[in-house]
Amino acid sequence: MNTKYGDKYKSEFAMLKTQRNVSSLVGTLEKYWPSLTCDAFSTCEGGKGLFWAHEWEKHGTCSFPVIQDEYSYFITTLNLYFKYNVTKVLSEAGYVPSSSQKYPLEGVVSAIENAVGASPLLVCSDGAVEELHICFSKNLKPRNCITDSRSTCPQHITFPGPVPLRSENCITEVTELSENET
Questions:
Q1: Which Pfam families does the entry link to (predicted)?
Q2: Which distant-in-sequence residues (6+ apart) come within 8 Å of 87 by Cβ?
Q3: Mean pLDDT over residues 147-168, rounded?
Q4: Distance between CA atoms of residues 40 and 49, nearest Å
Q5: Regarding predicted confidence, which is higher, 46 or 26?
Q6: What CA–CA distance (Å, rounded) separates 31 from 20?
Q7: How far is C-alpha 64 from the geometric centre of its chain's CA atoms?
Q8: Percent helix, strand and coil across the chain, each rounded to 5?
Q9: Residues of the chain with CATH 3.90.730.10
Q10: CB-hemisphere CA count at 13 Å for 111?
């Protein structure tokens, strides 16, 4: 077999295998990593494709060689979410989604720092949290985020609730990756 064509077919097979594996995570991604800016996953990102395709292309590809493929990226991300469940941390500290209740930024940051062991990055718009980042080193240990949250967020912030999603059959469990797979 011609090597050029053999490599092409190997590459296409690997891509199909990865797509199949990632598709097995869609229910879990819909439940735990939804797009809060669109209500139908097939039309996310302005109809250009799934929200997660953007996440992989923008963020996941930068994780190479630590994380080798899309499936590993998403399963690792989900596992980190469950391990450092900021939603639970904030809820237990009394910070729950609300468009009207204002919370002290310092208290929110402090609750996350105490639970995770590193400073988060919060991105706000009009006093509402739009994004909350936990930063990790290459060995997937939490590290302080470089940018200071106070630069985009006021002293008191709100946590708007999620947009209702059209979703069925969400998976409630994710199997953790073995060390061989990461």
A1: Ribonuclease_T2
A2: none
A3: 69
A4: 11
A5: 26
A6: 19
A7: 17
A8: 45, 15, 40
A9: 1-83, 84-161
A10: 19
Q: Are 28 and 176 in contact (CB under 8 A)?
A: no
Q: What is the pLDDT of residues 91-130, one digit of tens each?
A: 999 999 988 999 999 999 999 999 999 999 999 999 999 8
CB-CB neighbours of 98 under 10 Å: 12
Interatomic CA distance for residues 48 and 36, integer angstroms: 16
For helices 51-58 and 70-83, give the axis angle rounded to 10 degrees.
100
Q: Which two tokens stand for residue 29?
A: 């991604």
CATH class of 1-83: alpha beta
Separation between Cα atoms, residue 143 and residue 134, nearest integer Å? 8
- Provide the mean pLDDT of the chain: 74
Spell out the alpha helix ranges (H) of 3-104: 3-23, 26-32, 51-58, 70-83, 86-92
Kindly tell me if the per-residue pLDDT of 144 is higher than 80: yes
Listed residue (110, 122, 119) closest to 150, CA to CA: 122
Q: Out of 3.90.730.10, 1.10.10.10, 1.10.455.10, 3.10.129.10, select the CATH number for domain 84-161.
A: 3.90.730.10
Q: Tell me what pLDDT residue 5 has.
A: 43
